[in-house]
């Protein structure tokens, strides 16, 4: 069989002949395949010996066929003048991650190293989770701070990622540490505001969580993402769901070939809101306020990506121009 096959393979001169040969010996119903199938009927010792011989022949034929195929193709060059089979292939265009996805990934990795789990929540929310459970009752003027999109069925598009705090605390028992990235929606539209944008929510609840922990964790995050030399400052602020509340600014200096300059009039840029979880919020999820304490924060991703990549129009993130997206590969 071996001699016959090796003799026949030499005579092959076209791709059709080559395929017919492959089918005859190696195809499903091929000679070699049928011998291999019969192996199981042989006694063990013979099965080993014959099996080895047959498999070696199979490998040998496959190897010869690949070489033969190349030979035939090269010869066809004469038939197809100008066909240069040595030319390298065309590379497929490979995409890259969107700059916002890159920033979200980087931030979640930093918090992941601090033991924060990533969780998600729905974009279509109820007013209860988005406002009421976060200590923003219906009459509260804070509801106007976040211009809301209402849906016909009475639901809303979430205006921030903070409802994920409520959903997670109802699902899990404390202590917990979570980070929750996602899309949020507000009736805003200009170069710094978009009707859809991204936030990352963070929440840590434990028995002894203090304001120093909040400062420590957020300072670590800023240095990891913006560089070791970055300074941070905390300013008093107001959110109904945290008390006390702060906003965190980072120092920012942009350097290029011509020198360095501060990125805003003051050299500070606000990047997030944060604070200690308000007791009313713990009450709405039935956490015992005499045992549990926590801090929460929410940051705007576009704002951070704009600083990091020096982009001054937020709409560039959503226009999907290839020249813009390709510069982040
Ligand atoms: C909040 O949304 C709070 N939920 C943050 C928070 C969470 C505070 C937990 C305390 C504890 P604020 O409305 O300030 O806060 O929005 C947070 C960030 O979202 C802002 O700093 C800003 O960077 C970004 N942001 C707000 N509106 C827009 C918009 N229309 N387009 C792009 N980014 C926006």
From TrEMBL:
Subunit (UniProt): Tetramer of two alpha and two beta subunits.
Similarity annotation: Belongs to the class-II aminoacyl-tRNA synthetase family. Phe-tRNA synthetase alpha subunit type 1 subfamily.
Leading EC class: ligase
Pfam family of the protein (one): tRNA-synt_2d
SUPFAM superfamilies: Class II aaRS and biotin synthetases, tRNA-binding arm
HAMAP family reported for this sequence: Phe_tRNA_synth_alpha1
Entry's cofactor comment: Binds 2 magnesium ions per tetramer.
Catalytic reaction equation(s): tRNA(Phe) + L-phenylalanine + ATP = L-phenylalanyl-tRNA(Phe) + AMP + diphosphate + H(+)
The protein's name: Phenylalanine--tRNA ligase alpha subunit
BP term (GO), one: phenylalanyl-tRNA aminoacylation
Cofactors: Mg(2+)
Species whose genome carries this gene: Thermodesulfobacterium commune DSM 2178
Main location group: cytoplasm
PANTHER family: PHENYLALANINE--TRNA LIGASE, MITOCHONDRIAL (PTHR11538:SF41), PHENYLALANYL-TRNA SYNTHETASE (PTHR11538)
Binding-site residues, Mg(2+): 243
All copies of domain Aminoacyl-transfer RNA synthetases class-II family profile, residue ranges: 96-319
Top-level taxon in the UniProt lineage: Bacteria
Location in the cell: Cytoplasm
GO molecular function, one term: tRNA binding
EC id: 6.1.1.20
Keywords tagged on the record: Aminoacyl-tRNA synthetase, ATP-binding, Cytoplasm, Ligase, Magnesium, Metal-binding, Nucleotide-binding, Protein biosynthesis
Cellular component, GO, one term: cytoplasm
